[in-house]
Amino acid sequence: MNRCNACGETHLDGALFCTECGAYLLSETDSHETLETAIHAKLDSDVSTRPLEYRLGFGIKADRIVFVIPSSGRRLTLDIGDSISIGRLDARHGIRPEIDLTLDQGADKGVSREHALVHNSEEGVVLVDLGSTNGTRINDWQLPPEQPHLLREGDAVRFGKLLVQIYFGA
């Protein structure tokens, strides 16, 4: 177990980001390369430490989803209803996503106004890229447009170039 230096929340060893405040847990550095290396190390860690659903290839069914955005330190927790839209606010055209990444330098990092959707399916919680201009990557895998992909605890998702860590809550 380790403790977040920013808020004191306790986490399992190997966690990259605090689920309470979004702080980076593994070191004091802001280095992008170090962050990328840590994420890859976490994703490549021993699968026996991952949840059973992950090891068996099943999706996780959840009532809540947590988006941790390391670059801004924001942590967004939402109930998963029918769907959650992800993108950037464009009031002029009536685009108002539930997860608005404008404040996280979304425009500069290639987040489309209508970038992606998250919703519960029979298989678990899925992410669907809506044909965004700069694409969506999950753990360095390019998500094909309009194709649902099961999300798992701790997934590293890039909307364009904006990194978001995904966690679930009951």
Which class of secondary structure composition applies to the elements? mainly beta
Number of helices: 2
Q: What shape does the CA trace take?
A: globular
Mean pLDDT: 80
* Unreliable residue runs: 28-36, 42-57
Q: Helix coverage percent of residues? A: 10-25%
Task: Give your account of this protein's structure.
- The chain is mainly beta and 170 residues long.
- The protein has one domain (2-169): Tumour Suppressor Smad4 (Sandwich).
- The chain has helices spanning 32-43, 52-56; strands spanning 2-3, 10-11, 64-69, 74-79, 84-87, 99-100, 114-120, 125-129, 136-138, 141-143, 149-150, 156-159, 162-169.
- A six-stranded antiparallel beta sheet has the order 4-3-13-12-9-10, with no helix packed on it. The protein has a five-stranded mixed beta sheet with strand order 6-5-7-8-11, with no helix packed on it. It has a two-stranded antiparallel sheet with strand order 1-2.
- Strand 9 and strand 10 (141-143) form a beta hairpin.
- The longest helix is centred in the first third of the chain and has 12 residues, at 32-43.
- Mean pLDDT is 80; it is low at 28-36 and 42-57.
What's the quick description here?
This protein has helices spanning about 30-45, 50-55; strands at about 1-5, 10, 65-70, 75-80, 85, 100, 115-120, 125-130, 135-140, 140-145, 150, 155-160, 160-170.
